[in-house]
Design a protein that fits this description.
The protein is mainly α and 137 residues long. It has seven helices and two strands; from the N terminus they run ααβαααβαα.
Length: 137
């Protein structure tokens, strides 16, 4: 028999993992820059236009992060772009370093649009089979 505490723990565990998964896939959500990219002066840009990549492209770029060894192979072949960049049509561009604290100002003033919502919803959809598996086992 499964106790109520076990169910509650499983739900909390799944929700925490879901939150971390969404954050990991959307780390470049604001202006194509994560905290680290802002500090080092890099930005995810559209490979064709060199304009800052949108939220959806940045999320798609990060989907391949869990297959890190394959990512490393692509970086050995082409030091400019990893597998996620090829899939999303993005690349990294060197830009002026910015204060990572600006990210928090940008977050406070940001308003979600339809593409932003998709960048947040798709990781949840991807994560659902894992969540169901954990909750059923």
């Amino acid at each position: 028999m499964v106790s109520r505490d076990d169910i509650l723990f499983s739900l909390i565990y799944v929700m925490l993992l879901l939150f971390l998964f969404v954050i990991a896939l959307n780390k470049d959500f604001f202006s194509g820059q994560s905290l680290v990219k802002r500090y080092w002066g890099y930005q995810v840009v559209n490979a064709k236009t060199l304009e800052p990549a949108g939220q959806l492209k940045c999320m798609i770029r990060n989907i391949t992060t869990p297959i890190f060894p394959l990512e490393m192979f692509f970086l050995l072949v082409n030091k400019e772009r990893r597998l996620g960049d090829y899939i999303a049509g993005t690349t990294l561009a060197q830009v002026e370093k910015s204060d990572p604290d600006w990210l928090f100002d940008e977050m406070v003033n940001y308003r979600l649009d339809s593409k932003s919502w998709w960048a947040l919803i798709i990781p949840v959809i991807i994560f659902m089979p894992y969540a169901i598996f954990v909750l059923l086992v």
